From TrEMBL:
It comes from Siminovitchia acidinfaciens. One of its GO terms (biological process) is regulation of cell shape. Keywords: Cell shape, Cell wall biogenesis/degradation, Chaperone, Cytoplasm, RNA-binding. This is RNA-binding protein KhpB. HAMAP family: KhpB. The lineage of its organism: Bacteria, Bacillati, Bacillota, Bacilli, Bacillales. SUPFAM superfamilies: Prokaryotic type KH domain (KH-domain type II), R3H domain. One of its GO terms (cellular component) is cytoplasm.
Amino acid sequence: MRQVTATGSTVEEAVQSALAQLEATEDQVEIKVVDEGKKGLFGLFRSRPVVVEVTAKPGAVESAEQFLQNIVKNMGIEATIDIVDKDGRNVMFNISGEKMGLLIGKRGQTLNALQYLTQLVANRHSSHYIRVILNPEDYRDRRKETLVRLAERLASRATQIGEPVSLEPMPNYERKIIHTVLAESEDVETVSKGEEPNRYVVIQPK
């Protein structure tokens, strides 16, 4: 948490000094007047400057990271969380440590639920939409390989039986993998159905 104590002849002057040091705007901080100061009398007594304490509000990524750390700790998991990708619109958290299987859950269900909640926290503190990806022990790369094989296998099945095949609910970026893999298929097409967080992909014969 970034915090600055600044002084000035007025509250506004002290606040502006603190904002300059924090490189922040007024809506990004919390302001506390520590001392309202005192003007000198007839120039004979020394004046006392205004003192303010200005604290930067946690940003979207910082809030998401803190939330994630608390959840992981409460699950009894000792882990290291690193921000490896942050471009303003997307953020990926690499997670390493023991008991990653517990964090991931069956077919990634626990991880996807935690990712969804972490994304909600991030967007509560952001003026624009942020996509959050949790990646424990490179799980997402392995999951992508699994989804590619699954898409190809279920596309073949949909073609053989001549009926649509529905997949399990997935987060948006996983559904996108399925759509991308089958985008050029001459035999099937894909559509997403349902509401978040239970939206899923349907593979149907053309």
